[in-house]
Specification:
31% helix; alpha/beta; 272 residues; Rossmann fold; five-stranded mixed β-barrel
C-alpha cells in the first residue's frame, strides 16, 4: 500500500471515531504529561488500534492519541512519541504528524527532555528550540516524494515557526516563566553521551541534546505545518564535571518542570 493510501486509512479510521477537525497537535515528551490535566478528553485511542501507527515501546511513553478540548479548542495529543532507538524508521516516526495534517491540524507544539550542553542551562529549565542540528543517520523525506504532501526539497531556513515562537515567549513573560532559547542536537541514543561527544556537540553549536523531535519537525516543514518545540533540561552535560545519571532521575526532573511547560502550552493553545 502506498504511503498516501496508508495515511488516508488512518485519517478515515479517526474520523469514524468522531475525531473531527482538531486545530492543534501536541507531542508530549519523556516525563511530560501535566497538560492532560487541562484537557477535557473526548476520545482516548491507543496507537495499537490506529491503522499505520507504530506502537510506542518505551514504558514511560503511554502510546495514546488523545482527542479533546482546551476551552473549546479541539486538540490532538500524542501521549508518548516514537524514536529511532526503538527500531522504527524515520517514515514510521513521522507518520502520526502527517495524519495530523490530513486531519486539519494547523499548529504543532512539541516537547522533549534534553541534556543541557550550554553551561547557562540548568536542571529544570525550559528552553525554546530556535534551530537544530540533525545528527540522525536517516531523514523522513528519503525515498519517493509525494507532491500532495510537500515539495521534494523543502526549505529549512526557519524550521520553527516565528509566530509560534513569539507567542510562546510572550506567554512565558506574562506567566513569569523563564524561557531560554537554544539549538537542539538530535542523536540516536538510547545511550547518553560520552565526555568527548558532549565537547563535540558544544563545538558544533548545540545548546542541548536529545533523541527525538527533529524528524517530526522536518516532516512538519515538508507538509507546511507550523511548529514550535520546547526542551525541558533534565541534566547538565559539563564534560569536565560529568556525573552519572539514569533515566529515573531524568523523568523526575522533567516531571517537576512539567507544570510550567504545561501552563505555557495551555496559554498558547487558547490563542491559536
Amino acid at each position: 500500500m502506498e504511503l498516501l493510501e496508508k495515511l488516508m486509512v488512518s485519517k478515515n479510521f479517526l474520523m469514524e471515531k468522531e475525531v473531527i477537525e482538531p486545530q492543534v497537535g501536541v507531542i508530549l515528551g519523556t516525563g511530560l504529561h501535566h497538560l492532560l490535566n487541562h484537557v477535557k478528553p473526548i476520545k482516548i485511542i491507543p496507537y495499537s488500534e490506529i491503522p499505520g501507527f507504530p506502537i510506542s515501546t518505551v514504558e514511560f511513553h503511554k502510546g495514546n492519541l488523545i482527542y479533546g478540548n482546551i476551552n473549546n479548542k479541539k486538540i490532538l495529543i500524542m501521549q508518548g512519541r516514537l524514536h529511532s532507538y526503538e527500531g522504527y524508521s524515520m517514515q514510521q516516526i513521522v507518520f502520526p504528524i502527517r495524519v495530523m495534517k490530513l486531519m486539519d491540524v494547523r499548529s504543532l507544539l512539541l516537547s522533549n527532555a534534553a541534556g543541557g550542553i550550554n553551561p547557562g542551562f540548568k536542571k529544570g529549565d525550559l528552553a525554546l528550540i530556535d534551530d537544530h542540528i540533525n545528527l540522525l543517520s536517516g531523514n523522513p523525506l528519503i525515498g519517493k516524494n509525494y507532491d500532495e504532501l510537500g515539495p521534494r526539497f523543502p526549505d529549512m531556513s526557519e524550521p520553527y515557526d516565528r509566530r509560534l515562537n513569539n507567542l510562546l515567549q510572550i506567554k512565558a513573560r506574562e506567566a513569569g516563566i523563564e524561557l531560554k532559547t537554544g539549538v537542539y542536537a538530535a542523536v540516536h541514543g538510547p545511550n547518553l553521551e560520552t565526555k568527548a561527544e558532549y565537547r563535540y556537540l558544544k563545538i558544533i553549536g548545540a545548546d542541548m541534546v536529545g533523541m527525538s523531535t527533529v524528524p517530526e519537525v522536518i516532516a512538519a516543514n515538508h507538509i507546511q505545518l507550523p511548529c514550535a518545540a520546547i526542551s525541558v533540561i533534565t541534566d547538565e552535560c559539563d564534560p569536565d564535571n560529568l556525573k552519572p545519571i539514569n533515566i529515573e532521575e531524568i523523568i523526575k526532573v522533567a516531571s517537576k518542570a512539567d507544570e510550567m511547560l504545561s501552563k505555557l502550552f495551555y496559554e498558547v493553545i487558547q490563542d491559536l
